[in-house]
Amino acid sequence: MPSSARWLGAAGLLPFYLTLLAAWAGPAEWRGIALFALATYGMVILSFLGAVHWGLALRAPEAEAGYAAQRHGLGVLPALIAWAALMLPPVPGLSMLALAILATAAAETLAARRGLVPPEYLRLRWALSLGAALALLGGAATAAGGG
Q1: Which residue from 23, 53, 26 is spatially nearest to 35, judged by alpha carbons?
Q2: Which of 126, 31, 143 lies closest to 85 in space, CA to CA?
Q3: Domain limits of the chain?
Q4: pLDDT of 27-50, one tens digit each?
Q5: Quick count: other Cβ atoms within 10 Å of Cβ 128?
Q6: pTM over 0.70
């Protein structure tokens, strides 16, 4: 895994935690916009995760052709879930985004067992997914009055 993927991936967690910090510790009037910013960034990232699989499907060798439908599904489903989550109130919407990011990583784990996802990508994805999910759940807790 290139070092740029690791440090850019880690940098991609910054908006999660900066918006969470703004919602949790900022002035009360920031809370709503910060939680919306957290949700929209979660939506963007979840959609991006799906796009990875669309790209893998398009570049798959002929031996992996039997997995095309599942890969295309995993390419589209995260964006649909993200869109639906953005229309919900903050607590269920942020929770849904967190769970969908983790579910995508779980689906990628199954794909890796079939050799469809590189193991080094999977390790990075779980680390980033856990970081993103924790921030999103922290936002849900903050929205619920826990922060």
Answers
A1: 23
A2: 143
A3: 3-143
A4: 999 999 999 999 999 999 999 999
A5: 21
A6: yes
